[in-house]
Amino acid sequence: MTGNRISVRLSDAQIERLKLSCGEANNNISDVVRKALGVFLSPDAGAAPITGAPSRLYPPEEILKAIPKYLAWGSGDARMELQRLFSELLACSFALKRTFPRTQGIKALYEALRPLCPFFGMDNV
Fold it and tell me: Using the 8-state DSSP alphabet, how is residue 26 labeled?
């Protein structure tokens, strides 16, 4: 089968998201694009809405730059890093709740984080 090459412009965030999704699913980017076009161009395409992506939870685009260092985690126990980061987030939200009690969402953030404490080896008192 011979084919023609086309160029598609994507934002850096879209490229990172595509790479991440393909890596998670162990797929080749070109194959994924060809399959998506096949679905889009099929005669039945009008019968069902095209969602554009499999139903997965994607991280917010603001954190895509931080993901590669965790994907490359090669040594040590990643749970310790998760616990450290969660402790920092919990401490920050508590301090902000105490310092700025009328700031909208700060108290709710702290209260939403508290039930997660047992997952990180902390008591939720």
Answer: T
**Residues 84, 62: Cα–Cα separation, whole Å:** 21
Per the confidence metrics, is the pTM higher than 0.70? no
Question: Taking Cα atoms as reference points, which of 54, 122, 52 lies closest to residue 87?
Answer: 122
Structure confidence by residue, pLDDT tens digits, 13-23: 888 888 887 77
Would you give the DSSP letter of residue 121? Answer: T
- Residue 48 CA neighbour count, 13 Å, CB half: 7
Question: Quick one: average pLDDT of 24-32?
Answer: 78
Q: What is the amino acid identity at position 84?
A: R
Contact call for residues 40 and 50 (beta carbons, < 8 A): yes
